[in-house]
Amino acid sequence: MTPLLEVANLSIAFGGLRAVDDVSFEVRPGQIVSVIGPNGAGKTTLFNMISGLYRPTQGSVRLVGADVTSAEPHLLARRGLARTFQNLQVFPSMTLLENVMVGHHLQEAGATLPDLFGLPSSRRKTRATAESALSLLARVGLEKAAFREALTMSYGALKRLEIARALALRPKILLLDEPAAGCNAVETEEIDQLITEIASSGVAILLVEHDMKLVMKISSHIIALDHGRKIAEGNPGDVAANPDVIAAYLGQKGQEQVLHADG
Amino acid sequence: MRLKPKHISLLVLFVLIVMAPLFFPSGFYYRVGALIFINAIAVTGLVILIGYAGQISLGHAGFVGIGAYSCALAPVHLGISPVFAIALGAALSAGLAWIVGRPILKLHGYYLGVATLGLGILISMVLANEAQWTGGPDGIAVPDLGLRGLLRDWGFRVSAGELWYWLAGAVLIAGAWLALNLFDSPTGRALRALHGSDVAARTMGIDVPRHKLHAFVISAVYASVSGSLLALMNRLVTPDVAGFMHSVHLVTMTVLGGVGSVLGAIFGATILTALPQVLTVFHQYEHMVLGLVMILVMIFMPDGLLPSLLKRFRGRAGK
Ligand SMILES: Nc1ncnc2c1ncn2[C@@H]1O[C@H](COP(=O)(O)OP(=O)(O)O)[C@@H](O)[C@H]1O
Ligand SMILES: [Mg+2]
Fold first, then answer.
1. Euclidean distance between CA atoms A42 and A14, whole angstroms
2. Is A135 within the bounds of a domain?
């Protein structure tokens, strides 16, 4: 199978700081590829380059075979890339339902004038979108709060809202930046199941997550970053055993956690 | 069928417009009402730009000016009827907004404010300085719309005040209907999304510059129609309509009433248009009182008058 996402020699510098330095990897359909590394390793910056928010100083990003390096985010969305944000980026004064409806933009948007005149075609789209958005909210367990404004919801709920909103794009590849941050054990378990489900439907997933137990359990492939550089790559067992990774990130405590997850 | 918020808003607006004349002590109030509606039309456009899309404009009186002067000049120089002059003004405003909007809307916050301010000043300078066309600072006469004569031929006798009250009221309802349609449509959601988070909107596939531009053009058309009606009602237009103070006035109305809501902004237009008429008793303190009202509202009701009052009312009803 050809890779959905090919990242080659990607680098970016902020002033003197090389936040991401010569990173390459691939993600194939149905794969869950995790990017791990300590805080400040460059994981979010990597996501920002792939999703078109930052312009890399070097290297390339290919999506479904096409070069999309530095392409506008909205064009990447059109090509099947969706993402969530580590620091929430919800639409605060819109309801949860409307937030997820916005995720349907590419399916429902047309000319502006029919929307202004409230033509039947426009209203039909809004109805269909609302229905689909409601079922996506149900999938992340938020359907009861559908008509509440996003700003009234807890951090954990908004994390799940972002996943539902990203799924609304019907992506080929989904980038999740710390989806389980701020979630309790039960919620983390639910997110684990959700991610596995999404991947088994054929969506490629690129995941950044600090919960090592979760990462070790669901990843098909792991990339370890430190100071912007890729220091290891492979299946969960190999990466967890890699001495550089242990030194940079996992530490003694982390390794125990990993062993625990394996057992 | 359950009434949607859109229908409730329109119903409230309709009832208010129809009922208000029952309480008018004199014919003079029809004129005040018409003035309120004409301002509210421009303000409704600004609700789309500022309230939905989150983009400020301190120059929209420029488009009011284009609409107003189109009705003064086009009938005389192009020989078209005032009705077509309204459409011409709207088209000119839309065209200018389209051309200028592209570069300007790349700016954010204060910078966008200053750039739109410049645009407004530029338009009002042209109107004031091209005296051979526009009459300069003294202004210029505007031809009669001809509707009153038409009605008289059909056997209806209405005063000018009444005519403009009902005409502007009807246009306002139409304008509010369009804005409310937009709110709950794919385009409206895209506008509100880019207002809430520009970054998230872009990753959702929203072409942010295109949507901002559409909001800018639509709001320019509202302002232009407002200017046309003002000119045709007053039968005279001076460059003040395009001036900075009028732009500020419009934005203040939008924010005072409640920037995200069409009904709220119309409420703001009502208060800020009607208050000076009431305050003529104070005359020299008029602007001070207005300023004070604005400051107090912004401190105590940052969401705007109507949303804050509704929230308080609902909070009490819920207890
Ligand atoms: N826009 C930016 N400007 C300057 N420095 C940045 C910017 N974005 C990220 N950085 C820096 O890049 C490094 C990597 O950050 P980040 O990608 O957020 O790390 P991670 O997500 O792995 O915790 C950090 O040192 C951070 O300060
Ligand atoms: Mg990060």
1. 11
2. yes
